[in-house]
From TrEMBL, chain A:
Pfam families: ABC_tran, TOBE_2
GO annotation (BP), single: putrescine transport
Organism: Muricoccus nepalensis
Alphabetized InterPro entries for the sequence: AAA+_ATPase, ABC_SmlMolc_Importer, ABC_transporter-like_ATP-bd, ABC_transporter-like_CS, Mo/tungstate-bd_C_term_dom, P-loop_NTPase, PotA-like, Transp-assoc_OB_typ2
Subunit structure: The complex is composed of two ATP-binding proteins (PotA), two transmembrane proteins (PotB and PotC) and a solute-binding protein (PotD).
Family to which the UniProt record says this protein belongs: Belongs to the ABC transporter superfamily. Spermidine/putrescine importer (TC 3.A.1.11.1) family.
The protein's enzyme class: translocase
Protein name per the record: Spermidine/putrescine import ATP-binding protein PotA
GO cellular component: ATP-binding cassette (ABC) transporter complex
Entry's Gene Ontology molecular function annotations: ABC-type polyamine transporter activity; ATP binding; ATP hydrolysis activity
NCBIfam families noted in UniProt: potA
């Protein structure tokens, strides 16, 4: 695990068609050296196809894959020098843990002494040195996942590709291994490319997230940027939860003003005059106390509520904006909710973000 | 008795009638015939002494083993290639491949043996084709010798070699092969280091199955061997029906049965034969 820096990857206009079915449409993406990028999308969005094109298992119909500026589109997978953690890990069942980890070194015909040393160092790195002589079938899911990581890292790969690395694990273990994976990324300093459908995993692990829907890259950016300023309705709904308000937009100095019925909602972002859409996160809405004000204020009645321990989830029916979902920490709510109770909701202008409708 | 034990007893009770039927009409008569090897022409181990003293007995055993080993090796090689091709094809193509493998099993072994005679004899299609092409001057001796026997037996055995190997190959996770390539192994490396070792239990099972079958072949060697190359089954028939030496025939039959049981016992320790022959679990 010596000082070779991470490598930069660039996808240029990558498409994949199977007959008339378009799995990936014109995806372009830059991944900087040493970054952790996550391809996030629902199943069938093309994220795994993109990963397989990066790995070399799937040949793109169009476009190029570049590693540090060098075109590698035609290079077969075994010559790309990418480490890969497969979905379900795909450990070799007839080999011990140490033999699994030694496999990439063996096929590269590394000397025995160096091979043993590297296997030991890598098993140390993932804290599996105690299990070197076990078979994969004798390990827990989390341990198997770490063997897969060790096997993918042992040969000092240019890139580490992870295909749903945590999806086979239960929720608690997943959270633990998320932290481990993040720490590992920091320690080895390689470029990681991860594929997942789990938005929490994507938010917590990544330097950058690329969101896919129906074969298209919808938005790429830092997790917080994507969460705070989603570009489309799909991004706002897939990454976290969101209320959507439709109406007629006008520009003003602070952003846009959306008119719906008799209510005006101030929002930020860009939208051409005409029909527009605002995304409003439930946790950014507050229930206002008597006499309190906000940039946006709407009156309504509580249609449903539930207590979640840390807070309340409340659905408020409003005259013009329909039902709005509100998430509040218990200490921020000035009343005890009850169905039918009239409430005033408020939110700052920045909480309402103009988003585009997704192309059909 | 624990409830589970009583339960098991119930199941045994269900198969008891079949078990008794098999014992009375199958196992007992066979044992009776095999026992003749100890009683005819006079009581004792005289017949078994021939194993050590008679050159003709040793020659038959040698021929049988040699043909069995050669047949097994060739059938495994061809069968492996075929099973590999089938395992890697799509589900639709797999059905057609399997049909093509299984169809020969429905054709009588007699018909197949005579078909090979027609193809391989001196004026047969193969010799005539080779002579017309100018590859040979004189027809080759392709039949009525060990070569002909092996050709016929391999043809018969290939489906039996394919099925256990295919079942083992189907259990190999294709992602494991992709993993091998992604981690830097070429096609050959991925095959040799991952696919081949993982399919090995199937190869062993197929080998055992084919070898055991080969030891007892009768019709194919009788027709394609032309009476000149004797394998165990034909030799036994010769002793019992033509020379009326029941004791000697029964002796070799016993040796065959024991050899087969011993082979099974050895290999059942090596691999899970039950599972490979399709008993599930």
């Amino acid at each position: 695990m010596s000082g070779r820096a991470g490598h930069a990857l660039s996808l240029q206009g990558l498409s994949k068609r199977y007959g008339s079915f378009v799995a990936v449409q014109d995806a372009s993406l830059e991944v900087g050296s040493g970054r952790f990028l996550t391809l996030l999308g629902p199943s069938g969005s093309g994220k795994t196809t993109i990963l397989m094109m990066i790995a070399g298992f799937v040949e793109p119909s169009e476009g190029r894959v570049l590693l540090d500026g060098r075109d590698i589109t035609a290079v077969p997978p075994e010559r790309r020098e990418f480490g890969m953690v497969f979905q379900g890990y795909a450990l070799f069942p007839h080999m011990t843990v140490a033999e699994n980890v030694a496999f990439p070194l063996r096929v590269r015909r590394l000397g025995r002494a160096e091979r043993d040393a590297r296997v030991r160092a890598t098993l140390d790195l993932v804290q599996l040195d105690q299990f070197a002589d076990r078979r994969p079938s004798q390990l827990s899911g989390g341990q198997q996942q770490r063997v897969a990581l060790a096997r993918a890292l042992v040969f000092d790969p240019a890139l580490l590709l992870l295909d749903e690395p945590l999806s086979a694990l239960d929720k608690k273990l997943r959270a633990e291994l998320q932290d481990e994976l993040k720490a590992l990324h920091r320690r080895v300093g390689r470029t990681f490319i991860n594929v997942t459908h789990d938005q929490e995993e994507a938010l917590s692990l990544s330097d950058e997230i690329a969101i896919l829907n129906a074969g298209r890259l919808v938005q790429v950016g830092a997790p917080s940027a994507l969460y705070e300023r989603p570009a489309t309705r799909f991004v706002a709904g897939f990454l976290g939860r969101s209320n959507f308000v439709e109406g007629e937009a006008e520009r003003d100095a602070g952003g846009i003003v959306l008119r719906r019925g008799g209510t005006r909602v101030l929002g930020v972002g860009e939208a051409p005059p005409g029909p527009a859409l605002l995304s409003l996160r439930p946790e950014k809405i507050t229930v206002l106390a008597e006499g309190e004000g906000e940039e946006n204020v709407v009156e309504g009645r509580i249609a449903a509520w539930s207590y979640l321990g840390a807070g309340y989830a409340i659905t408020v029916a409003t005259a013009d904006l329909g039902e709005l979902k509100v998430h509040l920490p218990a200490w921020r709510i000035p009343l005890v909710p009850a169905e039918g109770m009239p409430v005033r909701l408020g939110w700052p202008r920045g909480a309402a973000v103009a988003v585009a409708e997704d192309p059909a | 008795m624990r409830p589970a034990g009583r339960h098991a007893l119930g199941w045994w009770g269900l198969i008891l009638p079949a078990f008794l039927l098999m014992t009375a009409f199958y196992v007992a008569p066979i044992l009776q015939v095999l026992a003749i090897s100890f009683t005819e022409p006079q009581p004792g181990l005289g017949n078994y002494e021939r194993l050590l003293t008679s050159e003709s007995v040793q020659r038959v055993i040698g021929t049988t083993l040699r043909i069995g080993v050669v047949t097994t090796a060739i059938a495994l090689l061809l069968g492996y290639a075929l099973a590999y091709r089938i395992a890697l094809s799509g589900p639709r193509a797999q059905r057609w491949w399997l049909l093509a493998v299984l169809v020969p099993l429905w054709i009588s072994v007699l018909v197949r043996a005579f078909a090979w005679v027609t193809l391989l004899r001196r004026q047969g299609l193969v010799n005539q084709g080779l002579m017309a092409a100018g590859a040979i001057e004189q027809p080759l001796a392709l039949v009525w010798n060990e070569f002909g026997i092996v050709v016929g037996m391999v043809h018969y055995m290939v489906p039996y070699a394919v099925l256990p190997m295919l079942s083992a190959m189907r259990e190999i996770d294709p992602r494991v092969l992709a993993a091998a390539r992604g981690l830097g192994a070429g096609r050959a490396g991925a095959f040799l280091r991952v696919f081949l070792p993982l399919s090995l239990p199937g190869v062993i099972a197929a080998g055992v199955l084919v070898f055991i079958f080969s030891l007892g072949f009768y019709i194919t060697p009788a027709i394609l061997g032309g009476g000149k190359t004797l394998m165990a089954a034909e030799w036994i028939k010769l002793q019992i029906l033509d020379l009326i030496r029941w004791g000697l025939g029964a002796m070799l039959a016993t040796v065959l049965v024991v050899a087969i049981l011993a082979t099974l016992a050895v290999f059942s320790r090596l691999v899970n034969l039950r599972r490979l022959f399709g008993a599930g679990g």
